[in-house]
Amino acid sequence: MPEDYRFNNPFGNTSHRYYLTSELSQRINLIRHLIENSEQLLLVLAEKHGGKTALLNQLRRIAEKECQHWWIYTPDTSPALSSEVLLSSILNTFHVRHDGKPFAILQDTLRNHIAATRYNGQIPVLFVDDAHQLPLATLKFLIELNMQGKPPTRMRVVLFCEPQITSILAAPEFKMVQNTLIHTLDVPVFSDTQVRDYLQFRLHDTRYNNIHPFHSEVIKKIYERSEGLAGKINIYAQQILQQFAEQRHDIHLPHTFAPQSKSIWGVAIALVVVGLSLLFYWKSIEEKQTSVPIFQPIATVPYIVPTEVKVEAEKKETEKPKEIPEKRVKEADWLSVQNPNNYTLQILGTHELRNLQKFTKRYSDITEFAMFKTTYRNKDWYVLVYGIYSSRTEAQAALQNMPAELRNTKPWIRGIASVQGLIE
Hints:
Layout: H1 3-8, H2 22-37, E1 42-45, H3 52-66, E2 70-73, H4 83-93, H5 103-119, E3 123-129, H6 136-147, E4 156-161, H7 165-168, H8 175-178, E5 183-186, H9 192-203, H10 216-226, H11 230-248, H12 261-290, H13 307-319, H14 332-336, E6 343-350, H15 353-362, E7 369-376, E8 379-389, H16 392-401, H17 404-407, E9 412-415, H18 416-422
Parallel strand pairs: 1-4, 1-5, 2-3, 3-4
Antiparallel strand pairs: 6-8, 6-9, 7-8
Helix pairs in contact: 4-5, 10-11, 11-12
């Protein structure tokens, strides 16, 4: 086991160990079943820091041991990856020369090699991480590779992406997805007890296996701040463990701890100091996340309206026709002052504000909408959310009970803190 992992950073290099919950095991088994038995496009969704890359790596490890008949390729994705470069990289793995040939010819060549691979009893599979960042043309090429052509010439494509992919696929150029059944899975977040077990799992076989700062109150804070997202848990846990190690001057401690009275007293004192440090650490975070501007009332001198002016104004007011106030979608300033520990449901995102306005106009009787602007693909990105909920469980219940037409947009749960971090 690498020294970096054993002694200094149990929460840094997590690629070689995977904490498997029953929910994650169920997802892995379902993905394996769908790859073996279905031609559907498969989307695996998780928020940023939600563990999608870790799940992809775990699937690769399992496939290497148990699914040797899978032919797996995982391209290096980026916002600049063109469909031509992606096609060339896939052909390279087939050891096919492709220099100077037109794109259409290369597509036919790839289809032929896919058919030959499947004829030989293998299943060609593409695992694509961060698919939501791909250029639209590249994303379309991947989907066509999975959904178009004769079945023997298709690849299994599994897109690991953030939930905003559902808004991207609602664009007109992805009509083939909208008219075809696809399978969507989420990467489940950890519960509070799973956060505790996960921390113990990461610390196992390290010098901090028995002596560490993760008592119940710290675990509770990590769970609340991370929202159960594995990547955020790693970030918070490593910060806390680093403080603990610095207080103990523990950077180069031996692998085992001698049970001597002096060391026991030293540990006790260190734990007290670290506990106080953590208390101030969490307090500072809470102040940053929950502080909102306080507007002081301005002292004013009462102004008495003359009687004749008041009567005239009242007369004009009664003569005016009564107007029904327009129901407005709440805006970013309203979202900014919500409790960051709460949750909301993201309904859709779009580069065109008018598309969002058309959508909300269709549901003018719904008053739980709010919108904000951020940046995506170096362009303005307008996001519509629905409701405010005090817990993820409450948000999940609201998701199940929301109008069916809204559920068709594939809404997803996200923390208010993450929304506030995106608002421009």
